[in-house]
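Re: [help] complex structure
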Amino acid sequence: MPVFEQGYAPYDGPRRPLSKRWWPVFREEVQPYLRKRRFLFLLILALLPWAWGILLTFFHTQLGDSENVKAFIAELPKVDESLVAVLLGNFYNLFLLTIVSIWVGSGLVARDRRDGTLAVFLGRALGPLQYLWAKGAALGFFLLIFSLLPVLVLVIFQVGLTGQPAWLWEHARVLWGSALFTLLGPFTLVLFLLALSSMGRSPRLVGLTFFGIVFLGPAACGILYAITRSPLVWFPSIFTQLKALAELCLGAEVHPGEPGLALPPAATLLFFALLAASSVLVLAARFRGRAVLK
Amino acid sequence: MIRVQNASRWYGLVVGINRVSLDLEPGVTGLLGVNGAGKSTLLNLMAGLLKPTAGSVTLDGEPIFAHPRALARIGYCPGADRFWEDMTGLEFVTFLGRLSGLTAAAAKERAGRALQEVALGDEGGKRIRAMSKGMRQKVKMAQALVHDPQILLLDEPLNGMDPPSRAHAIAAIKRWGEEGRCVLVSSHLLHEVEAMTSRILLLHYGRVLASGEVPQVREAIASRPLKVFLRCADARTLASVLIAWPTVASVTFAGDGRNLTVEVSDASDFRARLGALLAEREVGLEILNPLDDNLAAVFSYLVA
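Output below.
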């Protein structure tokens, strides 16, 4: 503990502008997770399929001409929109994305409500928007690992190993499609979790609710589909819609014949628009009059 | 300056505060009231944590609710514990200093100063989880002070503190008021409020029952004449003079016949007449002591 001169002198030093005061909240939210080994292990697990993607790039660019393995490598999928759609929209990636969403997202607001610290945040010169931005950015930061970030790494490897920047022009959709998927999918989930978290005081309950919505939703839709045979019943399934979104954004059909993906693209876009809009409405209602503090 | 104009806050059908108007001036003001009088609601409105159902709460003309610029000038010490328990006191206060816009280095330095100001300098490095109730109170006070606010709203800040800490905190609060800050302190302990300030704001059932300096408030309670204790050598003669004055309601002898208790309906008139009497006549006055112009009496007359 440093020793200071006695007396309480008024502070006349610099102050951070209001617009930048979200940063300490973001940092305080992210740092504890980066110290947890189990959490980091989960993130590494999430990156394994992408390591396979990088290996594929390596095989095609470095070993493709080798006579011994040429035939074998020719059989392997190439790095393109279809592969990225598979990597983004497969069950493994979406399952881990959901787990991380629950781990980080369920307590975003609920924990502050439970501990009473939300009043401390909002009693400071920190508006609800900055608070929500900081909290959302923390979850969004981790969800990037399941969306745009590994795609960027894959693209860098692809261009670096082939030495052909032209690949970027030919497969530009890999980049903008992944960015669109991130914006519409994971980031909408961030909004949804913020809204859900602002309605509860128990992170565990919020997490269980989200888990139920994500995993029990498809089960319920499956039962309804077995009865009605209408693909429309898959509309409210977040899990199915994320898969559909990956295919839609990257323009690749990687799960042919899956009944939930037979919905028109407009239905998928409508679903995420509705999810985002309802989340924003809930957040506005909870924070505008500070009902969230009750 | 914080101005509350006709502010009301309702929780469904329950009244928190009802048409309250006041100006919070520089210096220390004691906020008094029984449980449920609306003290915490008023503090929450002034801290920008609640929106008034009707009326307005402004800081220099700017609404406080949802206005970060106004909030930056307010330091709020809540009544309930609101901590990240795994942080140390210093980390907690530093973090909140950063939220208030201080740079990392400045926040740490100011947090150290604020903890010293509330006499928690050396123990600020403890985890909050391991702190006693009194130490937690000090951390809450330090976090309210760390960003050097002009307005300090303290909700029962002395709860759980030991006597030396209370004395230290009272001295600190008085000093903050003397520095020109507007300090509003709520408390149930009247003698502690009296030690900090003579200016009070008394809430009852969500309304302002009285505000101002304690003696002024006491004089305004017309239904309860002021009791004055007098001890003098010639009590009988003095009593015969006093009873003739129109502002004296009654005179009672007590003890050895040299003690008088006088009930006075107009204290200032009584003081003026008594001064004139003492100047013209020798009555051997030894003690003159108002019995019920203190805060405890004011509180009990108005609320009990």
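The CA atoms of residues 9 and 73 of chain A lie 72 Å apart.
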